[in-house]
Task: inverse folding
């Protein structure tokens, strides 16, 4: 699934989503558009849910852009998007991993500069924030800084790995 992005000759981010179908094989636009148009969100799936975190909502240049704290979930069974508890900080380019019933967001970029912070949320608590609005501090836990940013995250044997990326400095 491709979520959000920037279309060529467009004025900014798009809420459009695309799905690669193995039967055709082809990319199709078959998901409902996100309520918040953006690009560079971090996206992960859990059961029948597609969750998009953060991203860029407007872009003029590397120095002039706006990141968002928005977290939204698409229920694939109903085709409806809902808002979830926002991120503690406006971020883009985070790595994501799921392990032991929690989602992890690692590193990324803030409005200006890179972020080495890692965040975690219990998936049931995060998904429940759709019907019971919660402040970010009630859902997202700040974890120790990751020594890398721009990495890719994965779960292996109950551990979250940060692979590749750059060190600060």
Result:
């Amino acid at each position: 699934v491709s979520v959000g992005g920037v279309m060529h000759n467009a004025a900014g981010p798009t809420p459009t989503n695309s799905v690669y179908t193995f039967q055709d094989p082809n990319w199709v636009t078959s998901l409902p558009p996100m309520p918040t148009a953006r690009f560079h969100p971090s996206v992960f799936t859990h059961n029948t849910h597609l969750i998009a975190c953060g991203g860029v909502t407007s872009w003029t240049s590397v120095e002039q852009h706006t990141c968002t704290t928005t977290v939204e979930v698409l229920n694939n069974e109903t085709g409806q998007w809902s808002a979830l508890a926002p991120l503690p900080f406006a971020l883009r380019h985070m790595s994501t991993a799921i392990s032991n019933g929690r989602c992890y967001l690692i590193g990324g970029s803030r409005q200006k500069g890179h972020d080495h912070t890692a965040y975690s949320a219990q998936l049931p608590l995060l998904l429940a924030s759709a019907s019971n609005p919660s402040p970010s501090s009630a859902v997202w836990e700040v974890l120790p800084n990751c020594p890398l940013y721009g990495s890719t995250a994965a779960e292996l044997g109950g551990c979250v790995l940060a692979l590749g990326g750059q060190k600060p400095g």
